[in-house]
Amino acid sequence: MSDNILEIKGINKKYEDNVVLDNLNLNIKKNEFLTLLGPSGCGKTTTLKIIAGFENPDSGSVMFGNKDLSTIPPHKRPVNTVFQKYALFPHMNVFENIAFGLKIKNVPKEQIKEKVTEMLKLVALSGFEKRRIESLSGGQQQRVAIARALVNEPEVLLLDEPLGALDLKLRKEMQIELKKIQQRLGITFIFVTHDQEEALTMSDTIVVMNKGVIQQMGTPQDIYNEPANAFVADFIGESNIVDGIMLDDFKTEFCGRVFETLDKDFGKNEQVDVVIRPEDIQMVPPSDNVLKGTVLSVIFKGVHYEIEVKLEDSDYKWIIHNTKSAPIGSTIGLMLNPEDIHVMRKVR
């Protein structure tokens, strides 16, 4: 029996001449927290709307088990959506907002009270039943929106950038809270964001998208440590990306030097992208055995210094993260270990 709760097969979507989704194929597992991540216009929200039934694909299908959802209207699909702007009813109090979907379904009053009370406890809003929506903070309104969606017991919860309107501290708190709720309920969450930190913090699986195409799908650790291409490396975390040549297996040339690497199975003398994370660069005394550069700027980031360095005899400027600082204008050495150099094929 398949572990997948949703299967997106060959979805294409175009608005006039703009291709939004290009043959999208995606399997989503039961009880998974999956995040669609990418820049504005990459197709992630359109994907969510197609799953919810608010948009129709030009071709392809969304399968829920053996059922094709394409002919099923939004209100009859086994999914509920939490929007960025929450869409709460201002003329109703908290209890009435959460109970709204149950009343539409003609659920008995006692059962509604029991379910709403349970949801309020789940989102830590017990005692807020009679509060007006406008009296709530942004975080509290978001919790009401989540409770209203969850009270209908959807098998899949869709969340379209629901943390975007919150301040930084509250957003970080809600990231942890959402993950706890998902784990407690054991239902599938499909979360849309352009914030890579949110995706890394909350997800079991991240799907990185660009121009309607999936660039990489994997765990947060896979996506960060082993990006599939320069786009993913640049979008997830900070990266120094330079042009290189794969001379042979385990041997790569970049920045005028030849380095041992862990990569193989490239063509001889193939042009490649070389990705180096700022935290993987060791700052050492300058010598002929290492790359050298001039310190252009130093910014204190709290847990580390962010140091911009212009490489010697090169136009490349690299970012280094280090717990130690360096004087602006000084020359430093940059040492790289083979495991810290990521070689990838150029995206054509």
From TrEMBL:
Domain ABC transporter, first and last residues per copy: 6-236
Gene name of the record: potA
Stated name of the protein: Spermidine/putrescine import ATP-binding protein PotA
Enzyme class: translocase
EC number(s) on file: 7.6.2.11
Pfam families to which the protein is assigned, alphabetical: ABC_tran, TOBE_2
Origin species: Clostridium thermobutyricum
The organism's taxonomic lineage, starting at the top: Bacteria, Bacillati, Bacillota, Clostridia, Eubacteriales
InterPro entries in the record: AAA+_ATPase, ABC_SmlMolc_Importer, ABC_transporter-like_ATP-bd, ABC_transporter-like_CS, Mo/tungstate-bd_C_term_dom, NA-bd_OB-fold, P-loop_NTPase, PotA-like
NCBIfam families on file: MMSYN1_0197 (NF043075), potA (TIGR01187)
Protein family membership: Belongs to the ABC transporter superfamily. Spermidine/putrescine importer (TC 3.A.1.11.1) family.
One term of GO molecular function: ATP binding
CDD domains for the chain: ABC_PotA_N (cd03300)
Subunit structure, interactors included: The complex is composed of two ATP-binding proteins (PotA), two transmembrane proteins (PotB and PotC) and a solute-binding protein (PotD).
ATP-binding found in the keyword field: yes
Function according to Swiss-Prot or TrEMBL: Part of the ABC transporter complex PotABCD involved in spermidine/putrescine import. Responsible for energy coupling to the transport system.
One cellular-component annotation, GO: ATP-binding cassette (ABC) transporter complex
Keywords: ATP-binding, Cell membrane, Membrane, Nucleotide-binding, Translocase, Transport
Reaction catalysed by this enzyme: ATP + H2O + polyamine-[polyamine-binding protein]Side 1 = ADP + phosphate + polyamineSide 2 + [polyamine-binding protein]Side 1
